[in-house]
Design a protein that fits this description.
The complex is a heterodimer. Chain A is mostly beta strands. Chain A has helices at about 30-35, 155-160, 170-175, 465-470, and strands spanning about 45-55, 85-95, 105-115, 130-135, 145-150, 225-235, 240-250, 265-275, 280-295, 310-325, 325-335, 380-390, 395-405, 425-440, 440-455, 475-480. In chain A, strands 1-2-3-4-5-6-7-8-9-10-11-12-13-14-15-16 form a 16-stranded antiparallel β-barrel. Mean pLDDT of chain B is about 85; it is low at about 15-25. Classes of the chains: A mainly beta, B alpha/beta.
Amino acid sequence: MKQAFKKTALAVACAGGMAAAMQAEAANWLMLQGTEPEAAAGRAYVWGFIQAQYQKDNSKGDDSGAENTYVPPMMMGPNLTSQQGFTVNRARIGVRGTGMPIDPKVNYFLLAEFANNATTSANEGSTMISDASITFNHIKGARVRTGLFKYPGAEEGYQAVQVMDYINFTEVSNQMLLERFPNAEFTDNNDSDPATAGYQNPTLDQARRGDLNQFDKPVGAFRDVGIQVFDAFNIGGNGELSYAVMVGNGNGLNFADNDDNLDKYAYLSYEMIYGGEGPKREGLKVFAWKQTGTRLLDNTDDSTHNPEEYDRRRSGFGAKYLKGNWRATAEVMKGEGMIGVGPDKPLFDQNGVVSGSPATCHGSGAAACSGADGSEGKAKGWYVEGGWYIPNSNWELDLRYDIFYRLADDPGPSIGPNVGKSFESVWKTKTFGVQYHFNKKTRYTFNYQARDVETPDYAADTGPNAVMDNIGNRWAMQVTHVF
Amino acid sequence: MLKTAAKWSVLLAALMLTLGGLQSAFAADKPFAENKIVLQISDGDPDKQELVLNVANNLVKEYGTDKVQIEIVAFGPGLRFMFAGNANEGRIKNLVESSGVTLHACSNTIANMTKQLGYKPEINPLAGQAGPGIVRIVDLVKQGYILVKP
């Protein structure tokens, strides 16, 4: 029975300090991130990584130069002030280990972010603690991890980001899972003043451009503050079954709870292991996950601060395969409630923003209004991706296709000129990738993304498509170094 | 005659016991081993654990299982290497069972750790625990073992 409980792998068991592997592997992220090699971990293993990139978006706004044509999907995040540029999007340093090495039953994980991304930009580029946790391994089959850490969930968010094979997340992960939290006060989505509007006019000079990024909290970064029970078990020799259940504040990187409700997470995976250990382990993994919680949202444009609770549910399942030089992943996800519709600010209601949506419906809750409201809306998406490490070389080719249905099954407005025209938008992205691995810890990544975004119920260049039709392709280069 | 038989019986019994005792002390001795190495692990650096295993493995590969006798002695912070449940337990077990490597866990360190932890740490059942690690090393060196500290 003792052998049935999973021993943590010695070799490079650090999800963050992935000393050996730069490729995303069929790894057990639950164990790699939450535990240390038993009786073989240091007191303080210092590690980190840097990602520097250049990105260019080829989207063209409305050639007429009219306002509201350059929307955030055409801009480079997190600042949304330009369509191209260099940036250091991640620079993290952390320390992990076991504070008392002769007691292997307690380990810790601490990580901080210093670069410019959506976790730090809300606080004007300040440093963010992204992980701070302690794990207790006293109970066989039920390890306990507490603090701030990645909640168990979708593979893209759960894996160590510095080994992700692509530069940008899929749209389903980016829009549906990478949570943007409601601002404390109602967020006006109907600001048409070019000096302060959410959308930029390309003909205006920089001084007159409005602040596109109006978040007042960092993104959730697939993390929460809470407590998790988890473990992994050897099944039948080559199989590994892992589980995790967690409760957390549901407030991302913000340490305090803000709504007196706890989010709940559940995760299950099974992997048929072909060989290898730790991050280089080869196998076929299948997994499923679910999250439920509530959020406080002031969704009414009035003079009263009147936030209400809205449910937020996310779930998914998928599989990941790695053997030899080949890799393949597929995952399907869906969400209900708190579907963000405005990536430049935490909007959950498109009414009054998108052409064709009645402004009078915005936040009104009127029975006559329907559609375009993500606060109780739905979304879904899936992706498939594959990679091939060219034999006897340092080169790798990657290919990914992802599709995201935002405001899925939206009924459309029940009043106004576009009655019944659904605001469901479909985001299709093909990503072509090439990677060169300088060594096990350093690589260069190039991605070209062909994007096709539309709201099917509207004709080309009308309604929401007036803007979406102009979302074009983009490309990016990134170098990653782990130390 | 009976006295002579009894005397011989006692002598024979004593001889058997001695041989038996010798056999238990050197149970893993390989009669054809031309090289005897004691590997010391006494610091807490987790990389040292893998290094010791790699060195043991390389010695067995180089000389052959029957031609090399290896004992790993752990003391001080290095005793973690011989904790039951150590992440390297699989490799350790393989070296013991397939290559005849022997293990010794320092009794003094076990006692010290017991004081610090408030309970006795569980040691790999494949490791001998009789006596201090440094004394074991001295004894083995006297028997012709070469001391190597990776």
